Amino acid sequence: MVSIHPIRTVLAAALVWLLVAVSAPAAARAAQGGDQTTADRLLANYLATHPGGTVLNDNEISYGDGTFVVTLRAPVGTLGVADCPWGWYCFYEWPNYGYPRGRLSDCGRQSLATWKWQFRVESAHYNLSSGSVSFYYYDTRLFDVGTSRRVSSDVTPYRNWANYVVRRCV
Fold first, then answer.
1. Does residue 25 have a cis peptide bond before it, meaning omega lies within 30 degrees of 0?
2. Could you give the CA distance from residue 75 to residue 92 in angstroms, rounded to a whole number?
3. What is the pTM of this model?
4. Element spanning 23, H or E
5. Which first-to-last residue range defines the signal peptide (predicted)?
6. Rounded to whole angstroms, how far apart are CA atoms 74 and 33?
7. Quick check: helix, strand or coil at residue 3?
């Protein structure tokens, strides 16, 4: 006659292993500042309202073959800090570098409407070795950031006015 006790032991061990295997990635994500469900939801929501992007990771979406990159959430420990990566100029949806953040690097005129970022800029950071970028409302130049003034933590009185940018490369 077959004993049921060894089968229960094997099933219990398999259940424990399964629980550990499932909860370990969730615990790791939580330790990194969020759970995957929240990250997936943010990506899905952003892509639903801004279609055509390519997901780079659980926090970034690329448009135009990498011309424009959106970062949805600030990295842990960078709240209120100008944190544009080297080689880009960035603009933020909130004052004091509040995320989401858009970033560009190309020279010349670019419509922010192309990326659905028109009328959303509230702070900016220029992190290139030369040149500057001007933010415009139609034909009116609103403000600049560049090598002589790299950051603007609050673009008041021009919050949410910019609809295109012009980067002058020197």
1. no
2. 14
3. 0.76
4. helix 4-31
5. 1-26
6. 10
7. coil
Token look-up 């020279």 returns 107
Cβ neighbors of 62 (< 8 A, separation 6 or more) are 53, 54, 56, 68, 69, 70
The letter for the amino acid at 98 is G
Q: At the top level of CATH, which class does the domain 36-168 belong to?
A: mainly beta
Long-range contacts of 53-60 (CB under 8 A, 24+ apart): none
44-58 pLDDT, tens digit each: 999 999 999 999 999
Q: How many Cβ atoms are within 10 Å of 141's Cβ, its own excluded?
A: 11
For 52-76, the DSSP string reads T-EE-SSSEEEETTTTEEEE-SPPT
Domain ranges across the chain: 1-31, 36-168
